[in-house]
């Protein structure tokens, strides 16, 4: 966990544990916990690798990671405010066995913020237990439709140079013939193997890369929506907005409104 603390999560006896950091530092090592965990990004953005998939958590998004699932943090923005809640969960509810990434609704956001007062409390507290039991009991209802903000990591070594090229040149036009040459595969074979390994076509994978990168840029507050659209490779704001909405299930303007609302309230300062 945090390199600045020596809290051993799996040795804690209480059913819940809250951990808030104003400037989170992670050790970037694969690990797992006996408890499930809810990871909420208050500001900044966070990448998490879970079961060979890279998940992105933009501002005001959260991930539910089931118990004993191996995961690690890949990278994050220069400064990130992160809340993690560990919980013993209801084994009869299938929701808690699945990985979920989702936009946090206002009610849940306020509940998470309220729970900050119990951050790093090392002993069982009756008020904390009652409150967090209610939060986790309602969590499946808050997550009505999980976002697919993840990219699978292919195991096939032939795709290594292809992946490197895509991640470096995501904002340029894909030329399938050039990628085939990198992998020493025909265009048809490359498309087939790539889809099998990642679950996405090359064009869909590039779309995800572009949208994920755009979320980073929008979260930084340095670029407008139109500047971001052109920066990640779209030829028009309209094309970017359509692509954004198909992935995020909301408009770029909605995403920016949430960030601006946080700034007004002093959440992201």
TrEMBL record:
<dbReference type="InterPro" id="IPR003313">
    <property type="entry name" value="AraC-bd"/>
</dbReference>
<keyword id="KW-0804">Transcription</keyword>
<dbReference type="GO" id="GO:0003700">
    <property type="term" value="F:DNA-binding transcription factor activity"/>
</dbReference>
<dbReference type="InterPro" id="IPR018062">
    <property type="entry name" value="HTH_AraC-typ_CS"/>
</dbReference>
<dbReference type="Pfam" id="PF12833">
    <property type="entry name" value="HTH_18"/>
</dbReference>
<protein>
    <submittedName>
        <fullName>AraC family transcriptional regulator</fullName>
    </submittedName>
</protein>
<dbReference type="InterPro" id="IPR018060">
    <property type="entry name" value="HTH_AraC"/>
</dbReference>
<keyword id="KW-0238">DNA-binding</keyword>
<feature type="domain" description="HTH araC/xylS-type">
    <location>
        <begin position="160"/>
        <end position="258"/>
    </location>
</feature>
<dbReference type="InterPro" id="IPR009057">
    <property type="entry name" value="Homeodomain-like_sf"/>
</dbReference>
<keyword id="KW-0805">Transcription regulation</keyword>
<dbReference type="InterPro" id="IPR011051">
    <property type="entry name" value="RmlC_Cupin_sf"/>
</dbReference>
<dbReference type="GO" id="GO:0043565">
    <property type="term" value="F:sequence-specific DNA binding"/>
</dbReference>
<dbReference type="InterPro" id="IPR014710">
    <property type="entry name" value="RmlC-like_jellyroll"/>
</dbReference>
<dbReference type="Pfam" id="PF02311">
    <property type="entry name" value="AraC_binding"/>
</dbReference>
């Amino acid at each position: 966990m945090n390199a600045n603390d020596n809290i051993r999560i799996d040795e804690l006896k209480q059913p819940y544990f809250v951990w808030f950091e104003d400037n989170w530092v992670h050790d970037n090592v694969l690990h797992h916990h006996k408890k499930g965990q809810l990871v909420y990004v208050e500001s900044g953005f966070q990448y998490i690798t879970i079961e060979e998939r890279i998940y992105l958590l933009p501002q005001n998004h959260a991930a539910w990671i089931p118990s004993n699932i191996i995961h690690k943090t890949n990278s994050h923005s220069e400064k990130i405010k992160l809340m993690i809640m560990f919980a013993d969960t209801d084994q009869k509810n299938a929701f808690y066995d699945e990985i979920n990434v989702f936009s946090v609704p206002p009610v849940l956001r306020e509940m998470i913020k309220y729970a900050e007062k119990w951050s790093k409390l090392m002993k069982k507290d009756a008020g904390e237990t009652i409150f967090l039991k209610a939060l986790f009991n309602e969590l499946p209802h808050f997550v009505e439709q999980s976002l697919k903000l993840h990219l699978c990591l292919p195991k096939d070594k032939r795709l290594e140079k292809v992946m490197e090229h895509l991640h470096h040149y995501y904002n340029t036009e894909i030329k399938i013939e050039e990628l085939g040459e990198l992998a020493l595969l025909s265009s048809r074979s490359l498309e087939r193997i790539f889809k099998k390994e990642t679950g996405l076509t090359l064009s869909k994978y590039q779309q995800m890369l572009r949208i994920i990168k755009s979320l980073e840029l929008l979260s930084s507050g340095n670029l407008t929506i139109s500047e971001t659209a052109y920066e990640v490779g779209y030829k028009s704001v309209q094309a970017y907005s359509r692509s954004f909405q198909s992935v995020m299930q909301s408009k770029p303007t909605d995403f920016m409104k949430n960030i601006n609302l946080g700034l007004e309230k002093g959440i992201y300062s």
